Structure formats: C-alpha cells, structure tokens
Amino acid sequence: MNFEITQEQLLLSESLSRLLGDHYGFEQRRTIAASAEGWSPQVWRQLAELGVLALGIPEAHGGLGGTAVDRLPLLEALGRALTLEPVLASCVLGGTAVHLAGSEAQKDALLPPLAAGELRLAWADEEEEGAPTCAVRDGDGWRLDGRKPLVLHADAAGWLVVSARVAGDVNATQGVALFLVDPAAAGVGLRRFRLVDDTPAAELTLRGVAASALGDPADLAHQHAAIQATLDAGTAAACAGMIGAMDKAFELSTGYVTTRKQFGRLIGEYQALRHRIAEMKVSLEIARSMAMAAAVAADDTGSPASGIELARAKLVIGRHARLLCQAAIQSHGGIGMTEEYAVGHCLRRVHVLDHLCGDVDAQAARLARVGA
C-alpha cells in the first residue's frame, strides 16, 4: 500500500495549516477557550468553506467523499493547532454514525447541512459499566432513559446521536441501537464542563426522552456494525490528533533548546538534551506510522484484523505521545508547567484523546483478550 499522501490531500492540508496559522495562534486559542462557546463559530465557518467539514461525507449527500486516510493529514493539522472546534464530535463521530446507520431520508436531511457547517451533531455512546441507557417503544416512537457521562460538544449540537439498549442483557454484544435526540427535548439534562484541554463537554441525562430511531433498530446486526465502525473512525481520528499534538510539542522543544542559553552555552549543546530530542523524534516517527495504520484499519472496519490494528495503534501512540510530551515539558524546565506556555497544553490534549474510545490500558486489555 502507498502510505504517501496525495497531491490533493497535501494542498488541502497546506490550506488548512495557513488558515490555522492566521487564526489559531496559541494566544488566539486561549481567547477562544475563554469564550462562552469554548470554540470559534468564525473558524467553524472557515473550515466549512475550505471543505474540511465535508470530507468523509458522501458526495451524494453534499460532501466531498473521502476516507479516514484522506482525513488523516487534516486531523493532524487540527491537532497540531490544539483546535477546540467540534470536528471530531460532529463530523467524524456523528457524521459517520448517520452515514452508516441512518435511513436515506435521515441522511438527506442531516448530512448536507453537516457538510456545510450549518448543523452540528454530538456522539453520546460512552456510559458506566452496568448502567446502560435503555430505549423502549412508545407508540410509533421511542423513549430513552439513562446517563452518558461524557459527550463532547453536546452544548453545540443540533442533534445528539445516542446509543441505547433495546434488547438483551447488559453484557450482550448486540442489542444496542442508535437514536436521534433533540437537546432541547423534555427530559434532557446537560451538565456542562470543560475537559483538561479546554474542550467543551457535558454529562447527558435522559429521563423518558422522546427519540427517533436512527435507521432500523430491529436490524441489530447492522446497528452493531455501524456503532463499531463509528468507534473505529473515532479511534483513528484520535490517533491523528495525538500526532498533531506530538508534532507541536516536538517543534516547541527543538526551538527552545536551540535558542535558550545557560551558563553561556545553548542548552541544546548538552549531550543529555540532545539524546532526549533524538528519543522524542523516534517516538514521533513511530507514532506517525501507527496513525497511518489506524486510518487504513478504520477504512477496512469489520475485517478480522482491523480491530486488532486499531487497538495496537492506539496503544502505541498513547504511550509514545505521553513520553514525548512529558519530555517536552522537562526540556523547557519550569516554563513548561505554566498555563501561559503551549507545551503543557499539548500533553493535556494527548491525555484527552488517549481516553477517547479506550485509553492505553483499555487497548492493552483488548489485545490481551484476543492474544494479539
């Protein structure tokens, strides 16, 4: 397989990097993070105009088409700038779920405005073990009860894509279906907060909430496959975002050690720091290769090997991302721990993305179960 990005991918990535360079410097990001929304509607519109939000959405539904591999360099660029806009929550997770599980009428209604940046979705799947969200029939519709402890950008969403159990016990592999919930509906509760990297999120509670089924909830095999494919797309996107944050931390470190002087010498001339920078570079390149493998596996979701490849990639990237970002902070000394300096925020972003779709420990346990 050719792992080189195409000319079209390169041009779009360069255009995105220029946009972020102009509108998403670190001080600009701090201003955005301190705003009421926690993300920039202006940058969101510019991402839509550039076509970033349409990538991965089929052309038949107003998008540009493309795969997880096509999206990889863009997600890296967004991760490098530590962006706070709901691209992952809305376009990757929410968009993938609607595309794979929704009826044609639902796709026609939701995907074109999603690609144009006029609609945002939020993915509500994570829940505590032993406490599933449940859905029951209510005439021609459904009623949902349960709690989702972490929903990214729930406050910005026009629709929530919620997973809920419709059949089987809590440990059954199948029996979960997807539903569309209006955040303003009666019985919906949102406890809003910010994650450690400033990403807006919320705890979602559902008490007898009216919901519409996304696709056919009776086709449990198809619903299970759609949910798994959505999680695979989210895993690959999280891997790409971590590469971006790692790349930024590495750039900040090399820039600092080659300009900071101590006792009349550049600190980058000391052998210990030179070795540390070399180890950081090795970690970055290993992780970058695994991110490409994760994107390829996400495009082959459902195959016996794809789940193993995604778990392995998430595990390796999570470990190397933490090592690199911690080394980057140490290379800066005391300034690396301050709120006003970007390198510490790279580690925060890595921490959040590592936990998305299963952290290092969860991926290790997953691999151990299959003997990989």
SSE diagram, text form:
Elements: H1 7-23, H2 26-33, H3 41-50, H4 68-80, H5 87-101, H6 104-115, E1 121-124, E2 134-138, E3 141-152, E4 159-165, E5 176-181, E6 188-194, E7 200-213, H7 220-257, E8 261-262, E9 265-266, H8 271-299, H9 306-332, H10 342-355, H11 360-370
Helix pairs in contact: 1-3, 1-4, 4-7, 5-6, 5-7, 7-8, 7-9, 7-10, 8-9, 9-10, 9-11
Structure notes:
The protein is of the alpha+beta class and 372 residues long. The chain folds into 3 domains: 7-120, Acyl-CoA dehydrogenase/oxidase, N-terminal domain (Butyryl-Coa Dehydrogenase, subunit A, domain 1), CATH 1.10.540.10; 122-221, Butyryl-CoA Dehydrogenase, subunit A, domain 2, CATH 2.40.110; 227-370, Butyryl-CoA Dehydrogenase, subunit A, domain 3. The chain contains 11 helices and 9 strands. It has helices at residues 7-23, 26-33, 41-50, 68-80, 87-101, 104-115, 220-257, 271-299, 306-332, 342-355, 360-370; strands at residues 121-124, 134-138, 141-152, 159-165, 176-181, 188-194, 200-213, 261-262, 265-266. Helix 5 (87-101) runs antiparallel to helix 6 and helix 7 runs antiparallel to helix 10 (342-355). It is globular and about 80 Å long.
